[in-house]
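G.,

No rush on this.
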Amino acid sequence: MIERREWGMREVLWGENTCAGGIAATSWLYARGLCAVAGGWDIAIFLPVRGEDDASLHLAITSSEWGFLLRRGARSSWIRVTDQPFVHERDDFGLLHHIPPLEHIGELVRGVEERDGIRFDRGSARIETNLANAAPRLRRWISYAL
């Protein structure tokens, strides 16, 4: 059952999941003009790095949390956000203490590009989701916000 509750200055729709990561993900979803589906939803965005086969960014946004996996060579940082950001397996790039709100994840992505001298290939992004007709909106978001 979905109910309406007041959270900060805005009203957000949420189901049984009330963790901060799930609320942020649902708010992000609706801000993109997309609607949640019963039983949960998920979006996976895979961004390769131009000119490097061993570097990529995987952004995962679901009805219960969000996070990302950054890989380059033997190094990786896998950060998940449920109630608060945490390292899932490792954080070789030291990103845990630099996690912005999901709405501003593009700042982190551009910061990694600048710091590490790489460029994610937004035009080659692969999107996987169980949301019907979401890919065009997600591609626009990747182009403009990431």
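When you get to it, here's the other one too:
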Amino acid sequence: MTKRSSERPDDSTLLQACHARSIELLKRNLTDGGILAATPGERAEKRGYTAIFGRDAAVCAIGMAVSGDKQLEQAAVTGLHTLASHQAPNGQIAKFVDLHRQEADFWYLGCIDSTLWWLIALAILDRREQPRGLLRRYSKRIKLAIQWLLAQEHQRFFLLQQNEASDWADIMPRSGFVLYTNALWYFVKLLFGVDRARESHENFNGLFHPFSARLAEYRRARLLNEYVLKNGRDRDLYLSFVNFSFWGDEGDVFGNVLAVLMGLTDKRATRRTLDALTKAHVGDPYPVRAVTHPIRQHSSLWRPYMARHRQNHVWQYHNGGIWPMVGGFWVAALAADGRGEQAQRDLVGMARSCAVRDWAFTEWLHGKTLAPRGMPGQSWNAAAFLMAEYAVAGGGKLFAP
């Protein structure tokens, strides 16, 4: 069989190695309480990575469910059980659960996306019967979680509202209506039949991409859009967030990719979004950089906490660093849109990023120098690779409602 023009002779070997290494890493990080965020060690324990994180466990559950490895498939749900057992009385799912202390942590400003990811992972595993009857088992907890989310929903926009630094990008200034969070929320609505999904879809496109959408009749929407339309920078991507008189146009890659994957874009918007991200070279040489235009210290959006641990300076961490985990969702979005050759090429790029420092599966890499940063042995890097590999192989649309 003739190889694709974008595929080097050793690409298939690399992909096979990455698959095996991903399986190996996930098994190494697996505990009776679920999958740890990173491989145990002194540094990981000191920084709190040896815990069951809501978003990490959910992403890992999805990747493990399609891994083809029986042990991982059976263990995919374990972390979700741990999170369920530590659910807050009001329905919120914790940012993480410390297994040693048996203690849940809900972050400084509250963590909004753990609840969303927990619900999504439950639905995907239940659909695959891994195990059967999962949604029925947790029906009361699911109802409580959705009730908590509805308490965060604006009653005219039908989109979630949040504080800044309270989702996966936990030292970024996104607040108000946040793209990433609301892409997940819309998908949760589809999965669980939550009311007002149509309005959420319409207002999502109206607020986050006012350049092409019909302006909402609601006067509050016109006011928000007025500020953006006068000063917006990148009109091909969705805004990362919209607040009263300020917004994010740094080009949030994860949020834009999720908008495509979670069914919020029509064909035109899908093409516009993926073309814009491709043009910005977010996947070169490794997929993907977290933003296309990092927030600089002279920007009005800069916050002093972004310099915490010297992490979020330009082209670092969530402010332009390369995240292999997000790369997995990028590859899945390309595959879902029929961009097979590009998806295959970037799957190889993702494998190369995981292989840096002898398969360190490092948390993130510098967006320009490509230096590996953050915590090595990241479980969700391995899981996201397996998920992306499954998508490229045509295993099915995991994110179909």
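Strands lie at 30-31, 34-35, 52-53, 96-98, 103-105, 177-178, 241-242, 247-248, 364-365, 372-373. The longest strand covers residues 96-98.

Enjoy the weekend,
O.
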